Structures are given as C-alpha cells and as structure tokens.
Amino acid sequence: MLTKPQQHLFDDATRVVAGDSRWQGRTSPDYFAFVGPFGGCTAATILRALIEHPQRAGDPLALTVNYCAPIAEGEFDLDVRLVKANRSSQHWSVELSQGGGDVVTLATAVFAERRPSWSHQSAKMPETKPFETIPPYTKVAVPWAKQYDFRFIEGEPNFAGSKQVPTSAHSKLWIGDRAPRKIDMLSLVSMSDAFFARVFHARRELVPFGTVTLTTYFHLSSEDLATEDITRVLACADAKVFNRSYQDQTGELWSPSGKLIATTTQMGYFRA
Amino acid sequence: MLTKPQQHLFDDATRVVAGDSRWQGRTSPDYFAFVGPFGGCTAATILRALIEHPQRAGDPLALTVNYCAPIAEGEFDLDVRLVKANRSSQHWSVELSQGGGDVVTLATAVFAERRPSWSHQSAKMPETKPFETIPPYTKVAVPWAKQYDFRFIEGEPNFAGSKQVPTSAHSKLWIGDRAPRKIDMLSLVSMSDAFFARVFHARRELVPFGTVTLTTYFHLSSEDLATEDITRVLACADAKVFNRSYQDQTGELWSPSGKLIATTTQMGYFRA
After folding, report:
1. pLDDT recorded at residue A140
2. What is the interface pTM, i.e. ipTM, of the complex?
3. Other C-beta atoms within 10 Å of B252: how many?
4. How far apart are CA A141 and CA B53, in angstroms?
5. Do strands A260-270 and B22-26 pair parallel, antiparallel, or not at all (unpaired)?
6. Among A62, A212, A215, whose Cβ lies nearest the Cβ of B61?
7. Is A245 helix (H, G, I), strand (E, B) or coil?
8. B227: burial class by Cβ within 10 Å (0-12, 13-18, 19+)?
9. What are the start-end ranges of the E strands in B32-101?
C-alpha cells in the first residue's frame, strides 16, 4: 500500500488556496507566537501566494511586510494585486484581513528576472563552526521556535539578567528547520524573522516585543538557490539603536558555501 | 516693504496639494535625474503628504518606496490611504500615478508615537573630519546632485576606470543641502537615496542604474530631531553583493552630535 508522503509542517503552515485576486490561508498552531502567528510564517505565506500566482514572473527580489495588528487564530484572506508589471520586473501588494475586517498585515513585493551580470560579493562570510559540533538551543517555550534548530556560535540568549546591561546585541548561529527541509525563498523569509528580539540580548531579559515592519532582499535566483541544495543557513543579526520604544535589526543569511543569499532589516516595538 | 522669504528649492520640489484621499504633486526640474525625478525627492514628497495629512498621528518610523516605473515630467496624483490605525501606530499606503494611468510608485509607511523607553545606541559613530576642512565634491552633471553639498571623507567617486576592479563600495561623507536647510524627516528620506550607486564605486565607472526599492527607518522622534538643529549629516553607505543585475545598499545617517538618526537599505538594478 502506498502512503502519501507527509508534508513538512512549514509547508502546511504556509499553505494557500488560490483565488482570483482573493486567496485564503489559515494560521497554524505549530507556528504560533505569543499573541498571534509567528511573523516569519505570515511573511512566508504571503510570499507563497505570490510565487504560486499564475501572473507571477521572475524571482522574489524584495519583500516588505508591515504587521498592522495581531492575526487571530484561524482563517484569513489575502488580497493579492499585481500593481505594475514591466518587461523584467513586477510590483505586487498584498493585504491580509480576517472575516471582512480591517487589514492586519500589509505587504509589498518586487519580483524580477535575475539576468546574468557582472557579479561581486563584497561582504565576507563570517567565521563559523561546523553545525554538527554545536548543541541545539532548546530553551524555547514558544511553539514556532520549536520548529527550528538553532545552533549558536555567538550570542546565545541568556535571559538570566545582568548587572552589566547593555550586553551585545549580536548573534551568529546556524538555523535550519527542526525537521530538515531544503532552503527555498519561503524559508529565507521566515528565517529573516526567526532571530530572537535584539532587546532580549541587549538587556538579557524577555520584555514585550513585536516586529512592526520587516524587509528582506534576495540575492540569488531561485534556480541558483535550489542548486545550493542546503537545509540550513548561517544567520547573523545585530541592532544599531534602541530608542523611544523601537529597535532596529539587521540580518544576513549565508549559504554554507559562502554565498550571501538574503539580507534583512526590521523595526520592532519593545516595552522596557 | 516686507518681502516673502524665499522657499527652499527642496520644499518647492516636494510640495503637495491636499485632497481627500487623492493628493497632487509635481516633478521639479531642480531635482531631476537621468530618466525621471530623483527617487529621494519622490520619497520625500510621499512622506510630506503623509506628515501633512490631517489624520496623521505620531512620527515617521519606517518608509518603503517601490519605484515601479519612471515618473514623467509634470504633475502626479498621490492616492493616500490610512490602512490601519492603532492606539499608538498607523499604517499607510501611497500610490503615485499620472493622468489616471498605472501606478508608477508604490509606498508603505508606519507612523508611531515615539514614547520614552530604555535607550541604547550600540552602533558607534564612525571617525570623521570637520565638514569645513573638506572641499565639496563638484563633479556632478545631474541636476538633483547639484542641490546637495557632498564632502567625501572616504570613497570619493572616481569614474576613471581601474584595472583593479572591484574596488571598495564603501563611502563616508557629509551631506547637506547646497543651500543649507535644517534637517527634518523629509531630508533624511531624500538623503537616504542620495548616495551614488554602489556599482559606480565598485567598478569605477558609470553604468545604467536605478533604485528599485528603498526602505528608511527613523530612530529619533520629530521633536528630538528638531532639537539636534543641524543642516548636514554624516552619511555612510556600502554594498554587500552585486549579482544577477541587482545590488544591495545599506546606509546610515548620523547627526554631528553622534546620534544615529536614520538607517536605510535599498536594492537597485544595474547593467554591467
């Protein structure tokens, strides 16, 4: 008897049902955070709707997701709109809402034909340690974080408090799906938001926090990314400034082969 | 006889006429680039419409502008929409079009009450030299660039070509308006896009280039920024990767007092 291969939880969590301009998705308890779904999963769901859209041409180049209000557990609608199409690029907007209510997530995306060109990676891959030699970080209580395998090289979270705050906001770690899954554009988006809040690191304590806006840039074509054939990335994150209830975060996602495959930046709200 | 004080060219170039949801603006020859208006000026015009909007509450926190197609010389419409308002933040979208045609620029913005909080600037201001000791960079042919006073500390453009490309994509410079103007949120947005394309630096030559998407984060409240009372910023820019016809760019804008007042990131198209 043939059994259907079990789908990865991440693919289940980011599943969308195609519509004309209105698509559907639903939150997954596996990827829940404290007051709603994990923002990375929401962003990946939005990107999936665009990638699967029949009018989509080219590869994801840039995605910005603005988290306007918490998403409630359950179904949601995605209003997907091709705002402008050019010869080699497309501009999209997506509005996520529930039950005909207010927009709770607002996103824009750029897709582009990634034509061959002069190429140069000026950023150097940070020094690392083999994934296998680092124990996984398991001190996580929130559902979404249990879906990832975090292996910290630098900046392992320590929420024991410290008399010497602020401590460094920098982290360097391997991130993969707990059940290994080949890295694609969807995982890059989700992992862009999978860093713990920088304020937790700088203050060595958990404080109320939420991502407000997330932007991710993709530096490989989908084909080149598939050729990497990897199940984890070297992820680096840092913050430059915490001020008046908001922090920034910058991040890089590296292929083990040394290619910078995505960069990300976000602003998040904190209470401290 | 009293004479009306002459308005700064930048304020004239970013002027908007209020509507209900539809606002108007027009391109300025003073801030033109090669195939359309300077993207920084367009972004500032969009931000001005939001700041002047009667429903606006709080300070700019984040702005993303997607340049979908060139803007033609002349008038344009801004469809301004408050997508979601919360107790202490607002989410906006703006669509710029001309003559009832396609959207040519698509933007989202987040505004927020910048409530006092724990504060920490982990980024350190780069070393600099006094503005007055550096000659202005004047080798610019394009109108918009003539409106700025660029004083390079590192990475002065050199388009003479080089046998040793790639050269560094890093630049550090003072930027002010040529006719001094107090730095506000509008100038920060415009200056975010006022760096020369990183590919020009890395290849030491001018190649076809256009900003595709620009994101700027604001780290001070409007009031704190006004208190700085400055007419120029220390601006740093770099690129991490040039691949398949696109480059990234990261940038920081510093107050002379040492405060990081804005950070910016963009993806741009190049042909090389």
Report:
1. 87
2. 0.96
3. 23
4. 43
5. unpaired
6. A212
7. coil
8. exposed
9. 59-67, 75-85, 89-97
In which band, very low, low, confident or very high, does the pLDDT at A118 lie, cut at 50, 70 and 90?
A: very high
Residues of B in contact with A240 (CB under 8 A): 121-123, 219, 252, 260, 263
Calpha distance A174→B267 (Å, rounded): 26
Average pLDDT over residues B236-255: 98
Answer whether A240 sits within 8 Å of B123, measured CB to CB: yes
Which two three-digit tokens encode residue B223?
């009031």
Indicate whether B223 pLDDT > 90.
yes
Q: What average pLDDT does range A78-99 have in this prediction?
A: 97
CB A28 within 8 A of CB A7: no
Q: Is A206 helix (H, G, I), strand (E, B) or coil?
A: coil
- The residues, ordered by sequence, that sit 6+ positions from A99 with a Cβ below 8 Å of its Cβ are none
CB < 8 Å to A215, chain B: 64, 215, 265
Nearest to A242, CA basis, from A145, A165, A154, A150:
A165
Secondary structure letter of residue A14 according to DSSP: T
Interatomic CA distance for residues B96 and B84, integer angstroms: 19
pLDDT digits (tens, 9 = 90+) for B74-121: 999 999 999 999 999 999 999 999 999 999 999 999 999 999 999 999
**Beta carbons of B83 and A106 less than 8 Å apart:** yes
From CA A222, how far away is CA A58, in angstroms rounded? 9
CA distance B272 to B262: 30
Residue A228 dihedral angles phi and psi, to the nearest 5°: -60, -35
- Read off the pLDDT of each residue in A202-210 and give the average, rounded to a whole number: 94
Average pLDDT, chain B: 95
Backbone angles phi, psi at A188, to 5 degrees: -60, -45
What pLDDT score was predicted for residue A19?
A: 85
**What is the pTM (predicted TM-score) of this model?**
0.96
Q: Is the pLDDT of residue A61 over 70?
A: yes
Closest CA to B254 of B104, B158, B165, B131: B131
Find the CB nearest B240 among A122, A238, A243: A122
Beta bridge partners of B237: B171, B251
Locate all alpha helices (DSSP H) within A52-184, ordered by sequence: 143-146
Nearest residue, CB atoms, A272 vs list B68, B117, B250: B117
CB-neighbour burial class of residue A178 (10 A; exposed 0-12, middle 13-18, buried 19+)? middle
A172 contacts: CB under 8 Å, gap ≥ 6? A126, A128, A152, A153, A154, A155, A234, A235, A236
- Measured CA to CA, the distance from residue B62 to residue B109 in angstroms comes to 6
Q: How many CB atoms lie within 10 A of CB B245?
A: 21
Residue B2 pLDDT greater than 60, yes or no:
no
Contact A46, A105 (CB under 8 A): yes
What is the rounded CA–CA span in Å between residue B75 and residue B28? 10
pLDDT score for B144: 96
Give the CB-side neighbour count of residue B207, counting CA atoms within 13 A: 20
Rounded CA-CA distance B10/B30 in Å is: 8
